[in-house]
Amino acid sequence: MTNPSESVGAGSSSYDAIFIGAGINALGGAILLGEAGWRVLVLEKNSTPGGSIRTQPLTLPGFHHDIGAINLNLFIGSPFYQEHKEALARKGLRFIVADPSVGSVFEGGRFLGISTDAEKMAQSIAEFSPADIGNWQNWTSDFQECAPPLFQLFGSPAPETETPDNPFGNLDDAPLSLLPKLKALLMESPRSLLSSRFESEEMRAMIAAWGLHLDHAPDIAGGSFFPFLESNIDALQGISLAEGGSVKLIEAMTARLHDTGGELRSSTMVEEVVVENGRAVGVRLENGEVIKTSRAVVAGVTPSSLLNLTGDQLPAPIIERAHQWRYGPGTMMIHLALSDLPDWRAEEARQSFYVHIGPSLDYMARTYREGVTGRLPAEPYCVIGQPTLYDPTRAPKGKHVLWIMVRCVPAEIKDDAAGDIIGRSWTTEVRDAFADRVLDKIESYAPGLRDKILARTVHTPLDLEALNPNLVGGDLVAGSAHLDQFYGNRPFPGHAHHALPLPGLYICGASTWPGGGASPGSGSLAAERILADNPISRQT
Ligand SMILES: Cc1cc2nc3c(=O)[nH]c(=O)nc-3n(C[C@H](O)[C@H](O)[C@H](O)COP(=O)(O)OP(=O)(O)OC[C@H]3O[C@@H](n4cnc5c(N)ncnc54)[C@H](O)[C@@H]3O)c2cc1C
Fold it and tell me: For the chain, what are the domain ranges?
């Protein structure tokens, strides 16, 4: 660890807090501290901030592709947005609502999806199961009851004591009569819950498809809450996109950070947390420079990176737990520049922002199992985003981009479940062969797609990790969100409240409570915690 004599001038810390990484959580936390009058510095290794939220011209000039997050519903629903709506709008952030927002395609050109038009939805559901019209109404009225305690849970600090995989400590205010429903939503697998709630397999699959945006495959305990929340939010308000690409959100947050006096240094890699007398007091950069801070170092990184940054400074049980941190399945992203939108056989899919290919619970369970056991899935599960349907600014006039997220794609290839791809590492040939399998699958629902492709860029799980080191093995939420790594266990039992057992050191980001997603949830909770630990804030 650092020799104190190497530090920049004694007592010279010109910052109150230093954030490592400029992901959405660090930016959100830095803004909140800046607004409290703190002098804040955010250090980012990449040349631009945003981490998994960046928009780049990945194919041809004039085509803007979100490298990661595209659906900004979690941001819209965050307390941070409610507090900063006007400030961010003044910085040029504008949202576009995509509605109808999401649905699944099935054999025979069929589609079942979600829109804010209740009548249209009922008609669509009736084609699969008349009984599910009433079941859907019950599902949405459960949302009215259960959403307040669930939002309260996800917006509150996790318990400080060790409460392994028990979320109920933070549901104290929920009416007793609701607890069985909340328990089912928080603890049951999607298959178990949805099978008890809906008659048709298509309805179950359409809702369960949201689970695989995380690593909540149909049979994963605790995997029901995200499909429940997203399907209901989509029915209430569609899906929100940032006009021009998700980067606009990051640009607006960065501008807000500057307004508070905060600084952002990009192309700046932090190599070490500097510890003096048992307290985190600054960081050492790749070039050897040391930057001191008087109150907090906030690491927006994974537990694995935290270990690299802190060496042996953390207590042994935390080091052990960080070594055991488990990442979820990898992801492949395929970005297409298109001459026209796909001609989905299902007419309704042509209007839907997201189209899921995951036509049954068994299909998704199989794909997940193959992916997590290192096999290239024979039948990929895909989320196809059609942003230019709603936001034409992302492509030249009349042209389109397609955002294709393929989940459960292993970073380390042990085998090909279809037996066709021979390579066992992500060579260009393997990458292209697997991307072609994905396009074949999409073509089976939208014939002629290939003829519309002007250019394509494919990111393997390893490419995603190279774009953002938090995406270990292409895991898009920086650590499995299964029960053993969620609630009071994220990232470490007893330390889900963002303060680490090294004074002055905090952690935020997707690996921490309340988990991944394009929302500054953990950054906001970390800022709250830091302010509580430092009751006398600096005045502006
Ligand atoms: C392909 C993909 C699609 C997604 N789609 C959606 C979606 O549609 N909707 C949604 O809600 N969520 C989505 N997500 C998830 C969401 O984008 C992430 O969970 C969220 O953005 C993570 O934010 P974070 O604060 O953890 O920081 P990250 O985005 O992980 O950023 C961390 C930053 O820290 C930097 N960094 C790391 N180590 C260092 C270091 N030592 N020194 C300096 N800098 C460092 C990294 O370069 C990076 O910029 C998606 C993610 C991916 C990858």
Answer: 4-53+71-95+245-325+479-533, 118-232, 327-467
pLDDT, tens digit (0-9, with 9 covering 90-100), for 204-235: 999 999 999 999 999 999 999 999 999 999 99
Closest CA to 405 of 246, 242, 213, 248: 213
CA–CA gap between residue 295 and residue 279 (Å, rounded)? 10
CATH architecture assignment, domain 327-467: Alpha-Beta Complex (3.90)
> How far apart are the CA of 298 and the centre of ligand 1, in A?
15
- Ligand 1 pocket test, pick from 24, 27, 52 with the greatest ligand atom count within 8 Å of Cβ, gives 52
pTM for the whole structure? 0.96
Whether the pLDDT of residue 268 is over 50: the answer is yes
pLDDT, mean of residues 271-282: 98
Whose Cα sits closest to atom 2 in ligand 1?
68
- The beta strands (E) that lie in 99-256 are given as 102-106, 110-114, 239-242
Tell the residue nearest (CA) to atom 48 of ligand 1.
51
Q: Do the beta carbons of residue 408 and residue 209 sit within 8 Å?
A: no
Pair 110, 202: CB distance under 8 Å: yes
Task: Please give the class, per CATH, of domain 4-53+71-95+245-325+479-533.
Answer: alpha beta
Q: How far apart are CA 525 and CA 523, in angstroms?
A: 6
| Ligand 1 atom with the shortest distance to the CA of 474 | 53
Q: Does the beta carbon of 266 sit less than 6 angstroms from any atom of ligand 1? A: no
The rounded Å distance from CA 251 to ligand 1 centre is 15
Average pLDDT over residues 384-396: 98
**Is the C-beta atom of 187 inside 6 A of ligand 1?**
no
